[in-house]
Design a protein that fits this description.
Layout: E1 21-22, H1 54-63, E2 71-72, E3 75-76, E4 78-86, E5 89-97, E6 113-115, E7 120-122, E8 132-133, E9 136-142, E10 145-153, E11 156-164, E12 170-177, E13 180-181, E14 185-190, E15 195-200, E16 202-203, E17 206-207, E18 209-214, E19 220-227, E20 230-238, E21 248-253, E22 266-271, E23 277-280
Parallel strand pairs: 1-7
Antiparallel strand pairs: 2-3, 4-5, 5-9, 6-7, 6-8, 9-10, 10-11, 11-12, 12-13, 14-15, 15-18, 16-17, 18-19, 19-20, 20-21, 21-22, 22-23
Amino acid sequence: MKKSLYLLGLLLFTFVVLPGFAQESDAVADPDSSGVEKSRLLPTSTPVLLFSAVEDEEKEDKKKKKRKKNVYFGEKTKKALIKSSFREQVTYQVFHFTLNHRQPDPYIRDIYWYDSRNKAIKNSGYQPAAGYLLHGPYERRIGENVVESGMYYYGTKHGRWMSYDGKNILLDKRHYAEGWPKDSRITYYNRGERKIEKLTPIEYELEEGNFYHFYPDGQVAVTGEYRYGEKVGLWTAYWPAQKDRTIKKREIQYQSEAFTSDFKPYIRAEWDREGNLIYRTTN
């Protein structure tokens, strides 16, 4: 039988900016004259929030007395090491990656991959031609002390993740299921039929991560992002899908970073049901 529903949400709560760890910028382009959504990663239906066969694979692995070297969740991996220095501290990142490509889930914000050309671990902008998805155990050490450890599953955090201070004292412990933290809110149009209305990501009792609102038929209605309990970046509302086309209805610009007290959200652009631009801000 399938496992019970698990909840959505995601954010790597970064305590230290690591050398060799890069993120993409949040720059926003000008509104398109056409409201037809061209993003290939735009969700077109609600996610199936069920634990996958990964848990069963984990149980099978535990039953086996001997596990094949560098094989995790049935996938052959390669082991790698990144060494970097900052002032007098040397940081080591020991990790595994898979040569097999798997299309990232569009609902997951952070996909971790190894940029082999620049020898760096990144959490956005994954392209098969540029690198490899992390898969298997990960460990970060400063000198001889382990400061972070966990498991990746095709680029997503999975299972228990632990972080420590320089004296091996536990600072944080989190649990993930293929990238999703479990402390998040979900509302339904019909719970019995699993018709999801809203998915609100939660971390430490605050909204944190990508938010989704769906129409009753499962088509995306609103997308946006929370950071530290506040709306940030560009939030987009969509008209009900027509003829397999997803058309933007409205874009609202929020602060780029949380706690920007002098920023007032504004409507950036609006489109009619045919995708024709009917309003553009003059800001």
